[in-house]
Design a protein that fits this description.
about 325 residues; mainly alpha; globular
Length: about 325
């Protein structure tokens, strides 16, 4: 009887070790997949604060919470099932879909640069105030595109895993990225309120008050920097997706050229070769993204202008 009990305990211990190893594998794979999607995550975090600008401070966090709930719904109820079905039955379709998403990122990044240079008209500059429901609805629609890109990038990273592993890993990625993005957004939009509260409670001449005043003055600049980083991330990630996608489809020339440049810089500078090589790859990917995005923006602008010219007056 005791021998049987000890055998059972050994089996339980083995199963526990196997479960722990599986959890570790899922965690590592989720972290790897999330890291691959980092550029889109930065863009997502940069875009969202724009939706609560001009709203009452008391409504900022509730609105961000509603957008976050919409984001997790996008990922788990719509994107995840579609992505898993594609990866299971049409795995060849992932690369073209990923490249379409990459092209959209290139377009978004190039359009932001175009507007920053003083061209075009911002869609956000519509007259009239929007209701909270309209703000949330617009943000969730934008999130759907960014979330789809995040999930497909993550799925592409774990395509060799089994179906159940892919499911668990993508659920972890969806929840983790949503919490990180919208937690960071909530912290960002409340920083100026925190600074103002420090000034009011501790006094403008106190150390805490001066720190609070600094926060209030710094936040517009911080948001501007985040916007620039988000734009750069879109061009970089979008361009890199296109280069890798072309390579996987058999058009290896552009990818090989960038890779050879990266290796040449890496080998030429022994101390900082890794960093400089990465910068070369990133810069080249961003240039590819900017070029592709500029072409799409130009085509869209041409089509829009022709439609406007042909419309009856």
């Amino acid at each position: 009887m005791s021998a049987g009990l000890f055998g059972l305990l050994d089996d339980v211990a083995a199963l526990a070790r196997l479960a722990a190893a599986s959890v570790d594998d899922v965690g590592a794979a989720a972290a790897r997949a999330s890291a691959k999607a980092a550029g889109v995550v930065v863009d997502d975090a940069a875009v969202t604060p724009q939706y609560v600008r001009g709203l009452a401070a008391a409504r900022e966090v509730p609105i961000i919470k509603r957008i976050a709930i919409g984001s997790i719904r996008n990922k788990l109820l719509f994107i995840l099932p579609a992505a898993l079905l594609l990866s299971q039955f049409l795995p060849w379709a992932l690369t073209p879909i990923l490249m379409l998403g990459g092209a959209y990122l290139c377009y978004e990044g190039a359009e932001k640069v175009w507007h920053a240079l003083g061209h075009g008209a911002h869609a956000e500059e519509e007259t009239g105030e929007k209701s909270e429901d309209e703000v949330v609805s617009g943000a969730v629609r934008t999130d759907l595109i960014l979330s789809a890109e995040i999930m497909v990038i993550a799925l592409n990273e774990i395509a060799s895993e089994g179906f159940l592993s892919r499911l668990v890993i993508l659920v972890v990625v969806a929840v983790l990225i949503t919490v990180v993005v919208y937690g960071a957004v909530a912290a960002i939009v409340k920083m100026d309120d925190l600074g103002l509260a420090l000034v009011e409670r501790r006094g403008a001449d106190s150390a805490a008050g001066r720190f609070g005043s600094g926060l209030v003055r710094a936040m517009p600049k911080v948001l501007s920097v985040i916007s620039v980083v988000g734009t750069a991330a879109m061009l970089w990630v979008g361009g890199h997706i296109e280069l890798v996608g072309l390579d996987e489809l058999g058009l290896s020339g552009p990818y090989d050229l960038v890779h050879h440049l990266e290796v040449a810089v890496h080998d030429a500078v022994p101390v900082l070769g890794g960093v400089l090589g990465w910068l070369v790859n990133t810069t080249a990917s961003a240039l590819v993204g900017a070029l592709l995005g500029a072409v799409i923006v130009a085509v869209k602008t041409l089509v829009t202008s022709r439609r406007g010219a042909s419309a009856p007056h």
